[in-house]
Write a structure and sequence with these properties.
- With 622 residues, this protein is α+β, with helices and mostly antiparallel strands.
- It folds into 4 domains: 3-93, no CATH class; 104-310, no CATH class; 318-391 and 441-618, L-fuculose-1-phosphate Aldolase (3-Layer(aba) Sandwich); 392-440, no CATH class.
- Helices cover 35% and strands 24% of the residues.
- It contains 20 helices and 31 strands.
- Helix 12 packs parallel to helix 19 and helix 16 runs parallel beside helix 18.
- The radius of gyration is 25 Å and the shape is globular.
Length: 622
């Protein structure tokens, strides 16, 4: 394989490679690299160094995109913890038009006799709109390849050769139409599930099979399952009839959760688009009930669909973190986080999620989801977090003359980031039209773990500590076993650290005593905000999903823009993530709780998309 493929393969496995003063640095978990791989790295050292150095230059020059005073690649590397290495880093793209040019989408041929006229009309329009935005539309032949594989039926040792078409790696999404299995189809599903259970138990002996292999195994019996060569990066988009109950604003959001989950599971897709003559809805695991008029299809495709295709919802692998531990009993912020969650229980903004085993009955489907969700056993909605005060060593801010004497950092523009003799990094940024030179602090955020009951957190098992320095750090509660416990960081960790870093740089009063954060899958109304020192931003952002550092970039820029527009005296900020929800932060946790409770009692804060249209009409900032 070429150097690019080799580095990508190693990065996905958790191996970190970077350059340091012209030398190749490798960081790998113990036992991960084989002797053959170590030999190959040594033999191709010169070639790898040259590739990484070219990548550094490309990163610095990438499209020249500069938002306000910092380039997107600098923001992306800072909040993503990509300061020690280049391999595995891709500069963020936040413009849907630029995202579209990176995408390849295929439309699955229609089944025989399919006659849903509304969906057929929309399907044709969708293809035209995607192509018009710059998306490459592939033919079915271009998007697929034929794969032959053999399965062995346990006990009787009967071997069966199966041939199927697989979606190739590199295809961003496949658009399909919803199909309900016939009686014969249901019988085939029953048979294939029995075979898979036997195969998993007696042949694999409960060893984990990749999602793509499982899909190949069961796809011959299921019309709604498309075998994918790369299921983590190729999304299935299902077109179906609009579910009027799911988009009805009068129905409580808690009742919509099982509707949305069951729709995604039944269609076995990452994105479901509901279609009627008047409306379009879009659903993914964020479980947003976003609705667009049929006349606004251009906005729907550009601002909502394309960003979701470009950045799939994926949890961050634990290999990206430096793992440690801390004592939550000694942390005042951990204790405050537990109290924060309990105080929010009465608001109903943090509904309990679901256990994967409870909602996905078939073993084959559970195993696919388990593989793609990085071992998570449950899904919850919203998060609570508490950013600790930023940690500095030395001067927090320096003069321009002192800045000129600092050293450059490999991989960064020396006009944006430099470091002093003890390795503390300083950034040149702009606040209120004035250039300032500020130290990048160490950031620590106390957070609820993924899947935990946010309103009843166990201090000793549910509260993690996330760190952002020149890398990402994860500290587990003291005595917790990472292997035994379901200890996974929140999908929204990039958002948490991005908010904390931006607050430290641009609104230090907001975070000097720590900053509580609440994320819920809904929105406040415009009437909720107090006229003094409470602000909202992000309403018109492209709707990138959670779990991406693009979402972190938007939240970082949101803080930056609020400060430059209104000043740094911010008592409360609402950072909107369209088609996802709202992050609300404040300088005081009691104030935050009081304001949220008041908003809920007055009907000014609610789950779901009830208040989003009014926000969109009123809020004009980023």
């Amino acid at each position: 394989m070429n150097v690019s493929e080799l580095l990508e393969d190693l990065t996905q496995k958790g191996v970190q490679l970077w350059t340091d003063n012209g030398k190749l640095k490798v960081n790998s978990p113990k036992g991960l690299l084989s002797a053959e791989q170590r030999t190959e790295l040594a033999q191709r050292k010169t070639e790898i160094l040259a590739f990484l150095q070219r990548s550094n230059e490309t990163t610095n020059d990438n499209s020249g995109t500069k938002t306000q005073d910092l380039s997107l690649q600098t923001i992306g590397r800072l909040i993503g913890g990509f300061c020690r290495k280049v391999a595995g880093f891709t500069p963020p793209i936040i413009d849907p038009k630029a995202m579209a040019k990176k995408l390849k989408v295929a439309f699955r041929p229609l089944p025989d006799g399919y006659n849903e006229e509304t969906i057929l009309k929309f399907r044709e329009e969708l293809e035209d709109k995607l192509r018009g935005n710059g998306v490459q539309i592939l033919t079915w032949e271009e998007a697929t390849k034929q794969v032959d594989y053999e399965i062995t039926i346990p006990l009787i040792n009967w071997k069966k050769n199966i041939t199927t078409n697989v979606i190739k790696t590199g295809v961003s999404a496949v658009v399909d139409v919803d199909k309900h299995p016939s009686l014969i189809g249901k019988m085939k599903i029953f048979v294939v599930e029995l075979l898979y259970k036997f195969y998993s138990r007696f042949i694999l002996k409960d060893r984990q099979l990749s999602a793509s292999k499982i899909m190949q195994f069961i796809s011959w019996a299921e019309e709604n399952i498309l075998p994918l060569e790369d299921p983590t990066n190729t999304q299935v988009i299902m077109l179906t009839k609009l579910n009027k109950e799911f988009v009805d604003p009068s129905i409580p959001y808690q009742k919509k959760i099982p509707i949305g989950v069951n729709t995604l599971i039944r269609t076995f897709s990452e994105i479901v688009i509901g279609v009627s003559n008047e409306k379009i809805s879009i659903l993914n695991m964020n479980l947003s009930d976003s609705v667009f008029s049929a006349e606004s299809v251009d906005q729907f495709v550009c601002n909502s669909l394309i960003p979701k295709i470009y950045v799939p919802i994926l949890p961050l692998s634990l290999s990206r973190f430096e793992i440690g531990e801390y004592d939550p009993k000694e942390s005042i912020y951990a204790k405050q986080l537990v109290r924060l969650g309990k105080e929010l229980a009465s608001t109903g903004l943090l509904p309990s999620g679901f256990k994967i085993d409870d909602v996905i009955k078939r073993k084959s489907h559970r195993d696919i989801v388990d593989w793609m969700a990085n071992g998570r056993t449950g899904v919850s909605y919203g998060f609570v977090a508490y950013a600790e005060p930023p940690q500095y060593i030395g001067a927090v801010e320096i003069s321009e003359q002192e800045w000129e004497n600092l050293s450059s950092i490999e991989g960064f523009s020396c006009d944006e980031l430099r470091q002093n003799e003890i390795g503390r990094r300083y950034i040149k940024t702009r606040i209120g039209g004035k250039e300032v030179f500020k130290q990048l602090p160490d950031i620590w955020v106390i957070s609820s773990r993924s899947g935990a009951n946010k309103t009843n957190l166990n201090l000793e098992t549910d509260v993690l500590r996330l760190g952002l320095q020149d890398r990402l750090l994860l500290q587990l509660p003291k005595g917790m076993d990472l292997v035994v416990g379901d200890i996974k960081p929140s999908y929204d960790l990039y958002v948490m650290v991005a908010i904390a870093l931006a607050a430290a740089l641009y609104a230090p009063e907001l975070i000097k005593n720590g900053t509580p954060m609440v994320h819920f899958h809904g929105y406040p109304s415009t009437q909720w905000f107090e006229p003094d020192n409470e602000y909202c931003t992000g309403v018109h952002n492209p709707s990138v999903p959670c779990g991406t550092y693009e979402s972190g970039v938007f939240n970082f820029l949101g803080i930056h823009d609020l400060v430059n527009k209104y000043g740094s005296d911010i008592a409360l900020a609402s950072l909107i993530e369209p088609d996802h929800g709202t992050n609300i932060i404040a300088s005081d946790w009691e104030y935050l709780i009081a304001r949220i409770k008041t908003g809920v009692e007055k009907g000014q804060i609610d789950l779901g998309g009830k208040h989003f249209p009014s926000l969109k009409e009123t809020i004009t900032t980023r």
